[in-house]
Design goal:
Blueprint (H helix, E strand, L loop, with lengths): L1 H74 L9
Amino acid sequence: MLFYVFQVHSADSLLKLVSELKRTAIFSGLSSLSENVDRRIEVLSQQAEETERMLERIGQEAAASLKELEAHYYSSVVRTPLYD
């Protein structure tokens, strides 16, 4: 009988240990996941900043090209009249 009590106690201790190990694995996994998410957020933020700068540069180049085209158009001798 004493053997069974010891065996039940050991099984209970083992279940508690497994439960604690599971909790530890989950929490360490969450912290690792959180670190990965933080790194990914940083990378995506940098890419967003680079994209904003690139779009700003493209907008400025497009505006400059449009001004140049307008200047050529208005100085052109062979300009098509707006109204016939």
